[in-house]
Amino acid sequence: MIVTSPSASLELWWEVVVRHELRRGQGGVAVRVEGGRIVVELRGWRRAFAMQSGVSVPLSDVVSAVPDPFPRGTVGVGPRPPRRREAIGVFRYGTYHGVHGWAFWAIDSGKGSVVVELSAGRYRFLVVEVADPAALAAAIGSAKQALRGTREGGHEAEEGPALPPPRQES
Q: Is 9 inside a domain boundary?
C-alpha cells in the first residue's frame, strides 16, 4: 500500500493497531486502587507515546473523581483554558501542562473517561479512559472514604497530661 499523506498513514495505523486491540478486547490502560494509591499502568504502544509506563498517586491527594465523556473540554492543555465542552480528538497519552497545572492523560477517544482532581503532588488532574467509568469513580470514592474512616476512627485520641485546675484567687 502506498501512503500519500500523513493523515492517511495515521488512519491506517489507527485501523490496523488500535481497532485490532479493541476487537480483541485488550485495553491499553489498567487502573487499580490498591494500598492507598491509584495506580495507572500503560500497555503496548501507549507507553511509547507517554514516554513512561504509568503513574501512581496517593488516595489522600484525591479531591474528586468524576466520569466525564468530554475531558478535553474540562482539563485544559496549553496556555489557554479549554474552549469547547465537546472537544474531541484521536488520543492523548503522557504528561501535559495547562492553565490549571500538570495533568497525566491516558485516553483514546475519551468517551469513557474519568477525571480525577488532585490536591497535592506533581499532577493536578489524572485523566484516564476505562471500560466502566462510573465503576472506577465509585471505587475511588469508596476507597477514599475507607481511608478517611481508618484515619479518623482507627486511632483513639491520646490524652495529654492532665492540667491542674485554674487557681482561685480569694
A: no
162 part of a folded domain: no
Q: What is the pLDDT of residue 118?
A: 94
Q: How many domains does the chain have?
A: 1
- Are the beta carbons of 139 and 114 closer than 8 angstroms? no
With beta carbons less than 8 A apart as the criterion, state whether 98 and 71 touch.
no
Alpha helices in 30-161 (DSSP H): 45-50, 133-153
Domain annotation covers residue 11:
no
Q: φ and ψ at 2, to 5 degrees?
A: -100, 125
pLDDT tens sequence across 103-148: 999 988 778 899 999 998 899 999 998 889 999 999 999 999 988 8
